[in-house]
Amino acid sequence: MPKSELRLIKNALEYLPNTEISTVPRGTRGIYVLYKRRGKARADAHHYDLVYVGLASRSIASRLRSHKRTKGGLWTHFSCFEVWDNISDEEIAELEGLFRHLYRYDSRSNALNKQKGYKKLGEVRRRTESVWL
Questions:
Q1: What pTM does this model have?
Q2: What torsion, rounded to 10 degrees, do the Cα atoms 112, 19, 66, 70 define?
């Protein structure tokens, strides 16, 4: 497999139906995204609403299977982004936190999220505001 040109992301799959979870190798670490396909399926148009962003420090496939068992009706497709082996669990959590923070006020994007934002990023923002503004 050719080497990724990205510093954080090693491999990526996007907008796969939730019936394709088995394509994700066991033990894949990184970020995954759940979507709900909206509208009628047409060959020329795909529309997805983001439902959830999550992290997997051990196995994205396991997390997807768990979500399918417990919340399968809320999402139809997924994307996953494998991180390089040298990316720590803390760095994965920071990425997930950033993404959740970005869409925390989107009413359609929080169907599965209990954690609406990322506390550490809020602290950085407040510190930055006190210095920059």
A1: 0.82
A2: 60
